[in-house]
């Protein structure tokens, strides 16, 4: 739960800006403008990975964090690119432009990328190499969280990697270590490697009730991603099928929930209200949308109790 007195702290301590799609923005000046607006709006924690933007995203983030105070970074290791995909990094803006214009080619490229161009290495050597490389690129000495990046039960996580993470933590390279991935995989991994789940777990979530969150109860830091992706289609379907529900909550929250941007804002607010231990990864490439959503959450036009009731109605 939260109240109006806690709004500024809520934004800075609970929201994390996801950088997975950052390189979809065509030029660096526009990317930097977005990152600076995020920071200006009170979000100082950024989620990145060496694989994002064909390996270029960490470099873009490095430009931004120069001389920025109290910036926190979550990064990952174990998921990388191979083969011809590595040559795309320098020309990715041109490639992305082609894909945006042709959905058929985009679909084929996505299938190729997912099935053939990714490699996973959850071993001690990669663990040590990746954190040092990320710190070098980012130009900093320490990050907030260092996570295994989407392992599945099929990929072997080398025995002893837990001790390596503890050693690297004691060396001062990061504050917390843990694991990132989808619940369907993490629930299986947890049975054999519970030590990886003690400090940070980053996994998918939504505002609707989820019975499979036992792994989140074992860790100190809980991070959720995909909140909007998971919840928005369900709510849109409910509101389209039952317009009286949409009208009812629009009136209670003083916000037209037929507008998708407003609906996204409410989902984010409800997710923050649902559990005050969860940190939430949020992302948009539109500065106007970012400003509107954060400003509305920081200075809500609804009564705080109403968003709590909205959360109970859909989360229960």
Describe the protein in words.
It is globular, with a radius of gyration of 20 Å. The strands form two sheets. Strands 1-2-3-6-7-8-9-10 form an eight-stranded parallel β-barrel, surrounded by six helices. The protein has two domains: 4-82 and 117-315, NADP-dependent oxidoreductase domain (TIM Barrel, Alpha-Beta Barrel); 87-116, no CATH class. The chain contains 13 helices and ten strands. The model is unreliable at 1-6 and 106-116 (pLDDT under 50). The protein starts with 6 loop residues before the first helix and ends with a helix. The chain is an alpha/beta fold and 316 residues long. It has helices spanning 7-14, 28-40, 57-65, 92-101, 103-116, 124-138, 161-170, 183-192, 227-241, 243-253, 260-274, 287-298, 304-315, and strands spanning 15-18, 45-47, 72-77, 79-81, 118-120, 143-149, 174-181, 200-204, 221-225, 278-282. 49% of the residues lie in helices and 16% in strands. Helix 11 (260-274) crosses helix 12 (287-298) and helix 11 packs across helix 13.
